[in-house]
Amino acid sequence: MTAALTARSVQKRFGAAVALSNAALTLERGEVHALVGANGCGKSTLSKIIAGTVQRDSGDIVVNGAPLVLSSPAEAEANGISLFYQELSLIPQMSVEDNIFLGREPRNGAGFVDRKALAKKADALLQRFAPVAGRGLNSKARVSDLSPDQRQIVEIVKVLARDPDVVIFDEATAALDHRQVELFFRIIGEMKDKGVSFLFISHRLAEVFAVCDRITVMRNGESVDDFVTAETDMDTVVRAMVGDIAHDLDPAPSTDFTSASARLVVQGARGQRLQDVSFSLRPGEILGLGGLQGQGQSILLQSLFGAEPLTGGRVLIEGRPVVVRTPRAAVRHGFGYVSGDRGRDSALQGRSIFENMAIAEWVAERRRLVWPGRLQARLSEIAQSLNTKYPSLDAPIDALSGGNQQKVFIARWLATNPVVLLLDDPTKGIDLAAKADFFRLVRNLAAAGAAVLFYSSEDAELIGLCHRVLVFNSGRIVAELERAELTSFNLTGAAYGSAA
Amino acid sequence: MTLANALKGRVWLVTLAALIVLVIVNAYLQSNLFTPRVLKSNLTVFLPLVLIAVGQTYVILAGDIDLSVGAIVALVNVVTVTVIAGIGTEDAAAVLAGILAGLATGVACGLFNGFLVAALRLQPIVATFATGILFSGIALRVLPTAGLPVPAPYWRTYAGGLFALPVVLWIFIAVLIAVGILGARPFLRHLTAVGGHRAAAFQTGLAVTRVRIGGYVLAALFSAVASLCLTGETASGDPLMGGSLALGSVSAVVLGGTALSGGSGSAFGSVLGALVIGMIGNVIFFAGLPFEYQTLVKGVITLAALAGGVVIARR
Predict the structure, then answer these.
(1) Which residue ranges form the domains of chain B, and what is each CATH number?
(2) Beta carbons of B200 and A89 less than 8 Å apart
(3) Which residues form a coiled coil (chain B) (predicted)?
């Protein structure tokens, strides 16, 4: 009997970045198969290629013995492959039932939508989740009125409604509580017995071990290991995700901060995707935020900077509670923020390097008028320390490479003497040399007394730079790793929620 | 809050209430409003905007906009009269040929708009503003000055009656039926989904590009029918016809409760919206306002109606 789906030596590049160098996977009929790996290992890219939303550069994908191109989601679906989307694929303005059957509406003889049949089918499907659906989840409800877990249930029902042969669940349980997860797993079990195959991506290793038959581990765009779940344990899987490379580059000096009083204290912070986040940060300390991508690290930094709302909890600076509702207020409280998404969050496109560097100071010092000459003298000192080549301070920011731009954006805060620096995965897409310069700047700032909160999706950066790392999972801090415990193994293990 | 809940997603109820108020005021100002003759002439005046607003709804539901509908009206008009004049006979066959040529022109315009916006991914506002100028330019090339009367059978039929009811009323009823049929087809859901959340619609496997082009073709087709109605009314060709219809149709759509961002609304609402806009003009006319104030007051009332619907819907 042929496998339900086989992927062989799949390769994919995005520009210069290699996302997949050699991805392989065999999904047997009636099997639940986990795909795990650290950030950027390529598991999401591979699943999107299988679902037809991303095109591979080379390699084979064989479904039921037939090689396929899979150039669109519609084509993947025609071959019985359905993908559950992490970023939801529901239309908020439409009703639950219309969403479930979108694109596959039952029709009557005249070609009209058969509303009765549609409602009946939707009700029957939702019925399976009735015990855990919560209030307000019915087939007529508008999706925008539902809670996140209810939307996730609708998304699952939408996948099931397609009667797929192969289902890819990418973080399908992220918003569900444990009762909902249990029921969901039971439904997976029933479908598995009918011969449906599942590719299961989750950041909760416990779930992987609870529901999956086999585990494929990916690392740096390659499939590196295959395990039968019953014959392995979590440590072995985590070790396979991390690999043997020890990359402790230029470790930060471990300083004793216990004597200093806290600069920033966050107590029970809650937000859209944050649950009860508490920690404290001392002057001179570089505190890392780790975990898989999208577990609340960026949201936390953006919330502290006033760009996203916090719905609960307290923020104290030097022991005084502060309320920060806008980035403007944050700057005046001494926060600085450097985003990894330079184009969206940092750059004043088309403006000069000088303006891009001076902007934070203008806000911080409430300047209405500036004498460019005086400011320029101060800023050029800072600019020199950046180790950056630029034609002149008047050149447009776009003339610089991504890495050099990022140095300008951190320099922006040097002039304001920030008390807390928030770094939101700042090294995305910048080259190694610029990265090293960037980290040197961060260290200097910390040495000068700034408290640094540093989120990175690369474990090596956290290990190289941080005094301490908080590991996030589903909007919560699930582990705190001291300097001595900072290893790839511990970070990956904690990110997947295995005992740490 | 029960009122606000009942109104949620049903802004057209507000529009309907506004329409009823306007009809009452109009009836008070104009005692013979409810005579068949006046009702028919009102409907004749409102019908083109109703048609175009219905077509515009499908584009806006999909998250796009079509500012070229007015120019399509002009182009369809000159093509129709030119074809009829070219055939040279004054019989029904010539009229029919002209009408078909006009409708085909409309569909071609819609395909072109849809191609630019959905396939080439140009900004809808800019692209259709530009194609509007283009279509106007072609219209002027086809018929440089107003003229070329259409044969009598055309306008006599349009102004006449059928089975005891005026033809314009039959057309209005046909529009409502067409809206109903379109509303019951899966296509409308796909259109709404594409306008509601385009990425999600794509991930769901909808043919997003084709759906958006479909919206533009529908809008152009309804505009073409509107143009044929206007032609029946004016009985001649005019390359400058339909100038203010594009923005008028957008106002009518928004008044009817369709979100400009796409994804929610209904063509029935747009019919109400178009009637409200028409009635505002009536009321102002019969209120005896000095001519120089009419446009000003019309602007204020339209703005108030738009704002009212939006404020109520936002709760």
Answers:
(1) 2-314 (1.10.3470)
(2) yes
(3) none
- pLDDT value at residue B221: 94
SS3 B244: coil
Specify the CATH architecture of the domain A5-242: 3-Layer(aba) Sandwich (3.40)
Nearest chain A Cα to B207, which residue? A74
Q: Please, which pLDDT band fits residue A248 given cuts at 50, 70 and 90?
A: very low
Among chain B residues, CA nearest to A73: B205
- Grouping H, G, I as helix, E, B as strand and the rest as coil, residue A307 is coil
Task: Assess B199–A contact: CB distance below 8 Å, yes or no.
Answer: yes
Instruction: Give the integer Cα–Cα distance in Å for A77 and A158.
Output: 12
- Alpha-carbon distance values, A277 to A115, A491, A495 (Å): 46, 18, 16
User: What does residue A24 show for φ and ψ, rounded to 5 degrees?
Assistant: -145, 150
Summarize pLDDT for A387-427 with one digit per residue, the tens: 776 777 777 877 777 777 777 887 787 777 788 889 888 87
> Would you call A91 and B203 a contact, using CB atoms and an 8 Å cutoff?
no
Quote the CA–CA distance of A264 and B17 in Å, as a whole number.
56
How do residues A421-467 score in pLDDT, each as one tens digit? 898 888 776 766 677 777 888 888 888 888 899 998 878 788 888 88
**CA distances for A172 relative to A83, A87, A132, A151, A153, angstroms:** 10, 10, 16, 11, 9
Size of interface A-B (CB pairs under 8 A): 69
Q: Is A116 exposed, middle or buried (0-12, 13-18, 19+ CB in 10 A)?
A: exposed
- Say yes or no: B314 contacts chain A, CB-CB below 8 A: no
Find the CB nearest A93 among B184, B204, B263. Answer: B263
Confidence (pLDDT) at A1: 57
Q: Given CB atoms, is B88 within the 8 Å cutoff of chain A?
A: no
Does the complex come out with an ipTM higher than 0.85? no
* Candidates A89, A94, A98; nearest CB to B203: A89
Note whether B303 contacts A: Cβ–Cβ < 8 A: no
- CB-based contact A53 B203, cutoff 8 Å: yes
CATH topology of domain A264-495: Rossmann fold (3.40.50)
Q: What confidence tens digit (pLDDT) does each residue in A5-51 have?
A: 888 888 888 776 778 888 888 888 889 999 888 777 888 888 888 88
Average pLDDT over residues A284-305: 86
Question: Average per-residue pLDDT in chain B?
Answer: 85
Q: Is the pLDDT of residue B310 over 70?
A: no
Q: What is the mean pLDDT of chain A?
A: 82
The values of phi and psi at residue A15, to 5°, are 60, -125
Question: Among all chains, which residue has been given the structure tokens 């062989």?
Answer: A8
Domain boundaries defined on chain A: 5-242, 264-495
Instruction: Check residues A204 and B253 and name the one with the higher pLDDT.
Output: B253
Partners of residue B197 in chain A, C-beta under 8 Å: 90-93
| CB proximity B1 to A under 8 Å | no
Contacts of A92 in chain B (CB under 8 A): 196-197, 263
**Half-sphere exposure at residue A368, Cβ-oriented, CA atoms within 13 angstroms:** 0
Distance from CA of A145 to the nearest CA of B (A): 12
CA atoms within 13 A on the CB side of B94: 16
